[in-house]
Amino acid sequence: MTTVDIEKENKELTRRYKELLRISYRTLSDDDKKMIRKAFEVAVDAHKDQRRKSGEAYVFHPLAVARIVASEIGMDATSIAAALLHDVVEDTSYTLEDLEELFGPTVARIVDGLTKISNLKKHRDVSLQAENFRKMLLTINDDVRVIIIKIADRLHNMQTMDSMRPDKQVKIASETLYIYAPLAHRIGLYNIKTELEDLGLKYTEPEVFKDISRKMKETKEQQDQYIEEFTKAVEQSLDKEILDYEIKGRPKSIYSIRRKMLKQNIPFDEVYDKFAIRIIYKAAPESEKFLAWKIYSIVTDHFRPNPTRLRDWISSPKSTGYEALHITVMGLRGRWVEVQIRSDRMNEIAEKGYAAHYKYKQGSSNETEEDQTLDQWLNRLQEALENNETNAVDFVEQFKLNLYNKEIFVFTPQGELKSLPKAATPLDFAFSIHTEVGMHTRGARVNGKLVPLSHELKSGDQVEIITSEHAKPNNNWLDYATTARARSKIKSSLKDEKKTIAEDGKIILTRKLRSQKISLDENVINEMVIYFKLKTSLDLFYRVGIGTIDNKMIKEYATSRSNAFVTFFKNKIRKAPVAEHVNKDEITEKYDLLVFGKDEQKLDYTLAQCCNPIPGDKVFGFTTVSEGIKVHKQNCPNSISLQSNYAYRIIPAKWIDSSAQEFKADLELTGIDTLGLVNHVTREISEHMHVNMRNLNFTTNDGVFKGNITVIVQNKEHLRRLIENLKKINGIDKVIRL
C-alpha cells in the first residue's frame, strides 16, 4: 500500500473511532472514554499487520462490532472495550494476562469467553457442531455480555460476507439462522434478529431473497399510501386528545414473509400483513398504560378490531422484556392490518432489548445489574446446560425451541402469573415451579377440573398441581413435556431408574449364569452383549432386570456357548467381534418398534416413499384406501395437506424401544370372598409388583368372589410372576389371563 493509502486508512479509522463515541447509546464518563481509547489503541497495535479477505485493515472489524454494541445494542463502556479487543487474544501476541493488567478482570473475562467460542472447532459433523453450540452457551454463565458481543460480531461478519467462498457463506448463514438469530430474539434484540434472519436467507436461498426483495420494493409505494390514508383517518381523533405521537409503517422482514408463504403455502401476493402500523406516543411512566388503552379505543372507533387478535403485553410483558399493545383491525379496502401501540420507552426496549432496561431502571446503583427476567432465563438455561446427560443435538434442538417459542401466561392457585412456552402442559408448569414438584406430579387441575398431564394449557388458565410422594416420572412423560427443563429432568430420572433396575439385573444374571456353571466376567458380558445384539453392558443388565431377557434365552446362550467346537471353528474363520463400549455407562434408546394409537398397538404398515421415515423420527400413520397404513414423517412435505384434508384418516404413531414397551393384559380372578380380599389383591398388584391397573371390576355373589382387572406389564415373565403372586393370596382360587 502507498503512503497516501495508509494515511487515508488512518484518517478513516480516527473518524470511525470518534463516531463510535458520539453515537454511543449510554452516556460515557471521562473514565469510560479513557478505557475505550486505550482499548482502541491496543486493538490498532495488535492487528496492525492483519487484513481481511476484502483487503481492508483488520482493525475495522472490531471497530464495527464495537459500533453495533455501542449504538444498536446500547451496551456499556466495558462491553465496548471488550468488543474492540474481542479478537486480540486469539489472533495476536497479546495474552489474557496483558488484558487483565491493562483493563481489569471484567474485560479480560469477557474477552476470554469470546476467545473460547472462537476456538471451538469448525465441524461438518452435526453432533460435534451441536456440542460446540452447547459449549458456547455455557460461556453465557460467565457474563451475558459475552453472548451479546458474539451476536454483534456475527452480525458484522454476515454484513461483510460477500468476498467469501459460496460454501463458507452457506455454512455461516445456516449457523446464524440455527442459533444466533434465535439467541438475539431471546435477549430482546429484535432489530438484530431481523437483520440476521434476512442476511441468513440472502446466502442460503439467494434467488428467493432477491425475488421477495424486488417485490417488496415494488409494493412499497402502495404501502406508504396505505399508511398515509390510515394516519389521516385517526389523526384528527388523536389530536383532539392532545397526544404527542407519531405513526410509522414497519415492513415485515423478508425472512418472516418467506416463512409465512411456506407455512400457509401461498404466493407473495396473498401475504396480507406485509407491514404493521406503529403508533409511538410520549408519556410519563404513570400514564403509559392509560394512554395505550386510550389510543386503542380511538383506533377501534374508526376500524373494527379482530377480537381474537388482541395482545396485551403491557399488563404482562414478554419474558424478553417486550411491552406493547397489538391489535389487528379491519382497515381500509377490507384488509386486516396490525397496529402496534407503544410508548417511546417501550419502543426503545423493543429496539435495544436489555440495554434500554438499564436506562429506565430507577435508582439502580449497580451498572451491571441484569434485568430480573434475563436473570431468570439465565438460571433456567444454566440448569438445562448443567444436565449433560442429553445428547448434544437433542439439547440444541430443545434449546432452540425454548428461544423462539411464543408465550402463554397461566396463573398459580395463589394468583401469581407464570410465563410458559406455547403448547406447554401441566407437567411443564410443575417443573417450572420446582423440580421436586415436577418429579412427584400425580395429576393436575386446570380451572378447577382434573385434566390429563398431556393437556395443552391456554393463556389465562389457573393450574394446580396434585403431588404424591409415591409418584415418579415414567416414559410417557416425555410425550407430555415440551420445555427443555422438564424434559432434561425427566430423562435424567428415567436414566437413574433404569440404572437401579440394571443393578438388580446384574445380580439376577450372576445367579442364573452360576446355575449354568458360568461365572459373570468381562468376557462373558462382552459375548452376551453381542449375542443379544445390544450396545452396552448396562443395556444387558437392564433387559435382564425387566425380564425381556428371560431364563429360556439365558439357557439358549449357555448352550450356544458350551458348543465349544463350533465357536472355536467360527473364530478360526473370522475374528471374534468386540462389543462397542461394554462398560460405557449408558442405556441405549433402541427405536425398533412402531406403535399406533393411544393403546400403542402393533399394526401392519408401510413407510411412505415421499419422506422415508427412519426409526426415532416423529411420525404419524395415514390410512390409505388400497395400501393399508402408510407412515409419514411429521414434517413430510405432504403432511400439511393430509392432516388438513383427511384428518379422520390420521392415526397417531411413534417409534419406541420394544424392550421398554408396556403391554395390556386382562385377568379374571375367582375365589371365596373374605374380608379385605380386594385390598390384598390391589396392594399385591400396585405396591409389591409395581404394576399399573387400568380397569377394576369386582363382584361377590353368595360368598363367591369374581374380579376382572386390566394390568399393564412389560413382558410375559412379568405377567407370569404377577399371576403366581395373586394365586398365593388367601381366598383366591384361580387366576386366568383372558
DSSP helix count?
29
Under the CATH scheme, the architecture of the largest domain is Orthogonal Bundle
Radius of gyration: 32 Å
> CATH first level of the largest domain: which class?
Mainly Alpha
Let me know the largest β-sheet. Answer: 6 strands, mixed
Oligomer: single chain
Helical content stands at: 40-55%
Quote the average pLDDT: 82
Pick out the low-confidence regions. Answer: 362-370
The tally of domains stands at 5
CATH topology of the largest domain: Hypothetical protein af1432
Q: Which range does the strand content fall in?
A: 15-25%
CATH superfamily of the largest domain: Hypothetical protein af1432
Gross morphology: globular
The total beta strand count reads 20
Features:
738 residues; alpha+beta; Hypothetical protein af1432; Beta Polymerase, domain 2; 5 domains; six-stranded mixed beta sheet; five-stranded mixed beta sheet; 20 strands; 51% helix; globular; RelA/Spo_fam; GTP pyrophosphokinase; TGS
Q: Can you describe what's shown?
A:
This protein is α+β, with helices and mostly antiparallel strands. The protein folds into 5 domains: 3-204, Hypothetical protein af1432 (Orthogonal Bundle); 207-352, Beta Polymerase, domain 2; 493-566, no CATH class; 593-656, no CATH class; 663-737, Alpha-Beta Plaits (2-Layer Sandwich), CATH 3.30.70.260. Helix content is 51%, strand content 16%. Helix 1 runs parallel beside helix 3. The radius of gyration is 32 Å and the shape is globular.
Short description:
Pathway: Purine metabolism. Residues 58-158 form the HD domain. By secondary structure, the protein is an alpha+beta fold.
